[in-house]
Design a protein that fits this description.
- The structure is a single chain.
- The protein is α/β, with parallel strands linked by helices.
- It has 2 domains: 105 residues, Aspartate Aminotransferase, domain 1 (Alpha-Beta Complex), CATH 3.90.1150.10; 234 residues, 3-Layer(aba) Sandwich (Aspartate Aminotransferase, domain 2).
- The chain contains 11 helices and 13 strands.
- The longest helix has 21 residues.
- The C terminus is likely disordered.
Length: 356
């Protein structure tokens, strides 16, 4: 069987040696063994995310489920949401609000390729917003939105802040208590190098108080249900795997992993720059690199066919215009070596030309 190398911006590859936890004999979610796993995950994520007084909701759903759960559980009939969009997933927050008839205004920075924080504050002054949503790392564009700045604005204007950290956890510094973030969303399939289908919402003490007071128009995605023992049958074996990954992250140190991934991102971007390939965003995240390149689709196929290396295609308005490379979690260093090898061979074999 050919060895495959994964640098997709989700789902990421599994970590060697941890797969055995996926093959455990399934047990009851009410068993003491699984409940120990459940609360170990909650406590470890609270520690890693700087959320000492809150709680972690664990959902068996994709990260979009976490987005929906956060919106329906933290808003009410009197809410008005300010949506910062830098691509496909920012737009998704807006679409979710519309699906539940929650008043929302979207401001897009995709064409600007960076966030204008002064413009955001001007918008916040013009209307009585109650909530603000954003992607720390927009997976589709690679644009970075600084959670420290948004958290400060949310506190200044008394807004409930919902931060999508699905592609930034383990690549960006995120401090929930320090940054005044009310809800932080994480997916199993990215920085945790785990199977897809599980999401996590780190809720501040303030967010929990709001959820308990709200009349939530949801059943499965009512976050009140997730504050204690598992309310439904969760993805048991995936969570056993996640528990061990979190132990490994704690053992190595989250700061070490973040610094490692920042270094990988910088070196990878410099390598592409040597071939004239430019980054798409002007403010780049540490989790995902997005490169604007006229021959992006051919390069993606070359990497797959010649090196069994998987990269991300462009999404939405960037479809066919970019390729995307992830650097989060505990992804093996060999994968990045293979990327550099593929890049060199692509230009050597195809006399590739970049768009100036």
């Amino acid at each position: 069987m050919t060895k495959e190398f994964n640098l997709l911006p989700g789902p990421s590859g599994f970590i060697k040696g941890f797969e055995r936890y996926l093959l455990k004999t399934p047990i009851s979610q009410r068993s003491s063994e699984f409940l120990s796993c459940w609360y170990n995950i909650k406590n470890n994520l609270k520690l890693l995310l700087d959320n000492p007084y809150g709680d972690i909701a664990i959902l068996t759903s994709s990260s979009t489920g976490a987005m929906e759960a956060a919106i329906v559980s933290l808003t009410s009939k009197n809410s008005k949401v300010f949506v910062i969009s830098t691509g496909k997933f920012g737009d998704r927050f807006f679409d979710i609000c519309n699906s539940f008839s929650i008043p929302a205004k979207k401001v897009s920075f995709l064409e600007n390729r960076k966030i204008d924080y002064d413009l955001i504050e001007k918008e916040l002054l013009t209307s009585n917003f109650t909530h603000i949503t954003f992607q720390i790392c927009e997976t589709s564009s690679g644009i970075f939105c600084d959670p420290k700045i948004i958290g400060k604005l949310a506190k200044k204007y008394n807004l409930i802040s919902i931060a999508d950290a699905v592609s930034s956890f383990t690549s960006d510094y995120i401090y929930q208590e320090l940054f005044s973030l009310d809800a932080i969303l994480i997916g199993s399939q990215k920085g945790l190098n785990s199977p897809s289908g599980v999401s996590f919402i780190s809720l501040s003490r303030k967010a929990i108080e709001i959820i308990k007071k709200n009349n939530i128009n949801a059943y499965y995605f009512n976050l009140n249900r997730y504050l204690d023992d598992p309310p439904f049958t969760p993805a048991i074996n995936t969570l056993f795997y996640v528990e061990q990954i979190l132990k490994e992250i704690s053992k190595l140190g989250l700061k070490y992993i973040i610094e490692r991934n920042i270094k990988i991102a910088n070196e990878l971007r410099l390598k592409c720059q040597e071939y004239g390939i430019k980054q798409f965003p002007f403010q780049s995240s540490n989790g995902v690199s997005v490169f604007e390149y006229e021959d992006a689709e051919n390069f993606i196929e070359f990497c797959k066919n010649s090196f069994s290396l998987y990269l991300g295609h462009g999404q939405g308005l960037l479809k066919g215009k970019v390729f995307r490379v992830a650097h989060f979690g505990l992804t093996p260093m060999k994968n990045y070596y293979i990327f550099n090898l593929a890049l060199r061979n692509f230009f050597k074999n195809n006399s590739a030309k970049v768009k100036n």
